[in-house]
Amino acid sequence: MLIGLAAASHQSWSANLFTIVSDMFPKKAVASVVGLGGMAGAIGGMLIATAAGFILQFTGSYLSLFVLAGSVYLLALLAIQLLVPKIKDFEMA
After folding, report:
1. Confidence of residue 88 (pLDDT cuts 50, 70, 90)
2. In the chain, how many domains are there?
3. What distance in Å separates the CA atoms of residue 21 and residue 1, rounded to the nearest whole number?
4. Could you report the per-residue pLDDT of 1-57, keeping only the tens digit for each?
5. Domain span at 10
6. Which of 3, 29, 57, 75 could form a disulfide with 25 if both were Cys (CB 3.0 to 4.6 A apart)?
7. What confidence score (pLDDT) does residue 6 get?
8. Residue 27 forms part of a structural domain
9. Is 89 inside a domain boundary?
10. CA-to-CA distance for 51 and 19, rounded, in angstroms?
């Protein structure tokens, strides 16, 4: 049950990230920006796999890895709030 909830939460997070990209960048640039984000995610995945091995070997516990994994979402939300400009609401005439 907990894994299903985590997977659903992650999927809703990633769907919102794609929406932010399409709202912020011109139509011709969206695919490139998403591609760069995917590349950064793949590189991050390679690095965190190695780092997770070192952390697990050093601490002997998965607790720090789970705390890190949960904290990354909060850091990303903070980065979005600070770096993304305010998008004006659309007013219908």
Report:
1. confident
2. 1
3. 31
4. 888 998 998 898 888 888 888 888 899 999 999 999 999 999 999 999 999 999 999
5. 2-83
6. 29
7. 87
8. yes
9. no
10. 30
